[in-house]
Each structure stands twice: as structure tokens, then as C-alpha cells.
Amino acid sequence: MKVPPGVSPADFSEALKQFEDVVGKEWVFTSDDDVDLYRDSYSPVWSEKEEPIPAAAVAPDGVEQVQAIIRIANKHNIPLWTISTGKNLGYGGSAPLLGGSVVLDLKRMNRVLEVNDKNHYALLEPGVSYFDLYRYIQDHKLKVWIDPPDPGWGSPVGNSLERGGGYTPMHDHFDAVCGMEVVLPNGEVMRTGMGALPGSETWQQYKYGFGPYVNGIFSQSSLGVVTKMGIWLFPEPEAYVSGTVMVWKRDDLIPLVNVFAELVSSGTFRGTVVLASPLWFGPPDAELDPLRISGSVKDLEEYGARKRIPFWSLPLYLYGPTEVVAAQWEHIKEKFSSISGVAFQEGPSYRFPLSGDELAKIRDTVPLGVPSLQIFSLLPPRSQGHIGFSPIIPMSGEALIEALTVFEGVHRELGAGRAVLTILSSFPRAFVIIDLFPVERDVEKNRKMREIYRRLVKEAAAHGWGEYRTHTTFMGDISNTYSFNNHALRRFHETIKDAVDPNGILSPGKCGIWPKRMRKAEA
Ligand SMILES: Cc1cc2nc3c(=O)[nH]c(=O)nc-3n(C[C@H](O)[C@H](O)[C@H](O)COP(=O)(O)OP(=O)(O)OC[C@H]3O[C@@H](n4cnc5c(N)ncnc54)[C@H](O)[C@@H]3O)c2cc1C
Known about the structure:
The chain is 32% helix and 19% strand. The protein is an alpha+beta fold. It has four domains: 9-105, Uridine Diphospho-n-acetylenolpyruvylglucosamine Reductase, domain 2, CATH 3.30.43; 112-235, Uridine Diphospho-n-acetylenolpyruvylglucosamine Reductase, domain 3, CATH 3.30.465; 237-469, FAD-linked oxidases, C-terminal domain (Vanillyl-alcohol Oxidase, Chain A, domain 3, 3-Layer(aba) Sandwich), CATH 3.40.462; 481-522, Vanillyl-alcohol Oxidase, Chain A, domain 4. The strands form five sheets. Strands 5-6-10-8-9 form a five-stranded antiparallel β-sheet. Strands 13, 16, 17, 18 and 19 form a five-stranded antiparallel β-sheet that branches. A four-stranded mixed β-sheet has the order 1-2-4-3. Residues 82-90, 92, 94, 106, 126, 149-151, 154-155, 157-159, 161-162, 164-165, 225-226, 375-376, 379, 507, 510 line the site of flavin-adenine dinucleotide.
């Protein structure tokens, strides 16, 4: 049996026995077959000695059981790694960062505690998936939308804590969090925001409560186990209108992004868009690929003009009252008309609610608040899985062109083939570029991939671009780049970690923060 680092087999057996007393024997998993299910099937270190394989998993059914497990872990120095639904594929899946940890699997805590369609919020346990919440809303005929990320099998709690995103106006998931219940590393239960007021009537309606606002320290964090979370929902809109803005020259990106940034900051447009370059970064194409590789912008633009392929295309989705979204689309077109040669293409428009038959005809339902697993069939066929390098880039055309050129250059220099780059507007004042890497069951290919990834991290940091989220394998690398004033931020995180989790039992290493007893010299 695998044991946590620094824990004797006898102590670990004793801890497992105590876990069983709390949750029942059937909810403590120690067999190889069971533990295998918690490995990260998208791991870039699969089957290598660095692969962090858990020692066991334990699945509590309620907050008191979580408290009891944490107290036992403290007694025996057992590292725990918390997951809600454990679908964090691309970022570590359900596997811990530290091999030998015990996965604290909250899947059984899957109660929808409240959905309010007058004030538009929900209160959820961590094991509730986007599918569960959607089904609950449909079953209760409530007039609210959820905002699912691409795969709907994850959880609002896990996804929001990772600062993930979807596509509708509620796309910035951590921004939509209102009130949490957290079990602290000493086993105590705390409620944040208005939840700290006993009998509060506004826990899910006002975020800040009184005094320092602490919700942020539980996101991408190892400082607590979130056992309840409030999230804001979107009132079911009357209508949806979509359209695409197309421009033809590479440098048209500069005015395109200037107009887009104004629309976002003014609230005229709210949602995530995928800004595409069918010419530069489109799917493989026998005629286009040589032009892409040659790097001649003029040749690409001429080809695009001949074939009517835009250099940039920006799809936009609008949600709201019918007259309002129609007026918004007209306003948006007027704003972009300042760019010479701009063209617009109207997309699908809908009135809600849609019938089951109507929904069944729609290829991608995620931007309509309907969770799905469709993304897995939309991705280009590739290897075992993928992980994303995802730096935050300023919302300007100049910065985007520079970043895309730099990342493409690294791929070329290291012989990595064409970069698969996606530009997303997941956050209100910046873009995130996702550079998608295949992961394989091939040690040599994965090693090469890690080398390119780490080079991109350094190159990006040298330009002032940092990642918003990363796979557990690279958390230390990314943390090292956030180094202002001799790592003042990390030292502050460590000070908090040492104070609230002195035995270092919760998610050691998460985002580069190690408990004192495991802390190594700075890289
Ligand atoms: C093809 C594909 C497309 C994807 N598209 C998107 C997308 O559009 N948007 C997006 O955001 N992501 C996307 N992802 C990434 C991922 O699938 C989702 O973010 C997913 O929702 C995360 O899984 P989860 O909700 O089960 O979180 P979990 O795996 O349960 O949790 C994620 C992490 O959060 C922490 N955590 C979880 N629960 C708790 C808790 N209760 N208390 C304290 N800490 C906790 C842990 O560190 C954990 O590792 C995609 C992945 C793939 C493979």
C-alpha cells in the first residue's frame, strides 16, 4: 500500500481506520483499482516517477464528516487533496499535486440547497454538477440560467474555485460567487460574507459582509475545504441574437479590439468570445499552411482577400429583451463600421424558453446555458488529452499580435509544429490565450512537451504575461514567475498558510504554496 510521505504504514493504517469510522468502510478507497480512478488521465507525467499517485481517497457525506476527517488528518499529518467533482481535466483532473496524498472527494455532498429565481442565485454543495443544477432548475420550472463551462460534468464549486469560465453574461465564475461555508484546516466551520451573521437573510445577496473580504483566499487555494457556496445566476432572457464581425488585414485587429474593449467595459457586451484568426490560426489547410509557415502577412492577406477568408473574426452573443438585443446588435455594427472593409454575418437568434426539439437541433448549447459534453466531439481528434498554457494578455490588438508571434516563435524554434492558439475574452479587461498541447502515453513526447511549456512560461513572464491557472505539474513554475519584490506575494501566502494550517495537511503545493515542513529553497 502507498503511504503519504513521512507517514509510517502503521500510522496510515490507523488513520484509514478512523476515516472508516467516520464515513463508513465503503467510502474509503484504498485498492489499486479504486485509487487508479483518481489518477489524472491527462497527466503530462503519466507513468513517470513524478506522477503524483494518491495513497487513498475518502468521500464524506456532510460537513461534520469533513470536519472529522480534517481532525484525523491533523493528528497523523496526512496530506489531503480536495476535489468537488474531480473533473479538472487539463489542470490535474482528480489527482493531487503531492503523490501519496489522500483525495478528499466531496462527490456525495451533492445537494442543491436553494435556487432563487426572484433574486437569481443558488446555494450548492460541492458535489453538485452543472448537469445536476440544470436538471433541478428544469424540474422546478425556475426561470434562471446557469453558466456552464464547456464540459458540464464539473461542478460550480470546483470550477469557480479554479476561477474557470463559461460563455453567458455570468461567464466569470469566481466573480459570481456570493458567500461560502468553509471548513478550516483546524476543523472549524466558517461562513464568509453575510453568512457570518447568524440567521442572515442575505448570504447569497450581498458578497462582502463586514471587515476584510476573504473569499479570494479560498480560490486556487489550500486554506480550506468549501462545503457550501452561493453563486449568482442569470434570469432567463427573452431573446438571444448572435453575429460575427469580420476584418481582413492583420492590423485591423488593433481597432477591432479597441471597439470590443469599449463594448465590454461599458457593459454593452457581456460574455466570453473566442476571437479567431481563420487565416493565421485556422485548422490545417494544404494551401494555407505553407503561407502560415512562411510568416508573410502580406501573402496571407492576399490569400484571404481572394478566398474571402477574414484575418480575424469575432463572434458576439447578446442576451436580453428582444428590442434591447436588436438595438445592441445595431449599435455594435455601427461601432465596428469605423474599420475599413469590415463585414458582418448574422448568426442564429432564439426566443426562450426553447422546446426540447428546438434544443436538440442546436450543435453547441453551452452559450445557451445548457450543459453538455459536446466539446469532446468538437475538439480536433488528438491524443490522450491536452493541457493548456494560458497566459493573461492585455486587451489590445498590439499585445495580442506580439504574444501570438512570440508563442508561435517558441513552437517553431523548439520544433513543436504549428501552435494551436485560442483567444478568449473570459475576463472583463484582458484576454487569455490558450495554447493547447497534446498529452500522450509516451514518456519522450511528454518530456518534450514539458520543455516547450516551461520555455513558454519563461518567455511569457519576460514579456509581462502570467498564467491565470495551470496544471498541477507546472504550479511551481508559474508561482516562480509571480516574483515581484523577492516573491513578496508567495511569502504572504506562506505566512497565511503557516498560520491557518500549521501541520500543512491541506493540498500541499497547490499553486506553489507549500507548508513549512515541506518547503524547499526557492527556485
Ligand atoms: C475539453 C475541455 C474543455 C474545457 N473547457 C473549460 C471551460 O470552458 N471553462 C473552464 O473553466 N474549464 C474548462 N475545462 C477544465 C475543467 O474541465 C473544468 O474547469 C471543470 O469544471 C473543473 O472540474 P471540477 O468542476 O470537477 O473541479 P474539481 O476537479 O472538483 O476541482 C478543481 C480544483 O479546485 C479545488 N477544489 C475543488 N473543490 C474544492 C472545495 N470544495 N474546497 C476547496 N478546494 C476545492 C481543488 O484544488 C481541485 O483540484 C475544460 C476541460 C476540457 C478537458
